[in-house]
Amino acid sequence: MMDIVKTTFPIAPQGQLGYDVDEVESFLATARAAYSGGASGGRTASDVDSTRIRRTAFTMAKGGYSTAHVDAALERLEDAFASREKEQSASGSADATWLADARTTAEEIVARLDRPVGHRFDRVGFLTVGYHPADVDRLARRLQGYFGDGRALSIDDVRASVFRPKRGGYREAQVDVVLDAVVDVMLAVR
């Protein structure tokens, strides 16, 4: 008879890699403890915040958790932490600081987006693969509409952005940092 083991997330289909189960479970335990104000494995609540959750990466492994399911859970967890962080900052002068930081970050993003099409980010070398500039610039136009005209754009639209690879394309790390900042601003003002 086959033993049925209960897991937090579905396991990736056979032949596909998933996120290392132990790493995911360890991070979730730390995040739960942080959210409830406790400690886990020598870590304190200050070790986990919405930014750390967004930047968390797990090793890929056979028999690992489905990446789509874990990523969706991490997005919900990030939203919960960001909401709590905003509520906590609302007490006193921290609220003004929170909004001032978001405004400054938004101004930096807008300045980046106002650069000429095809030149908004540094390029990688001709033999190196980066993000396709046309794809990134398409999202940049949507972001300009969001920041400049108040057009609707969701955090999920930004998070789910996918760019084709292109030799000599935009430097991925630079684009990713700006998109992280966009998510930070969107979380701060909602």
UniProtKB/TrEMBL annotation:
<dbReference type="InterPro" id="IPR019933">
    <property type="entry name" value="DivIVA_domain"/>
</dbReference>
<dbReference type="InterPro" id="IPR019932">
    <property type="entry name" value="CHP03543"/>
</dbReference>
<protein>
    <recommendedName>
        <fullName>DivIVA domain-containing protein</fullName>
    </recommendedName>
</protein>
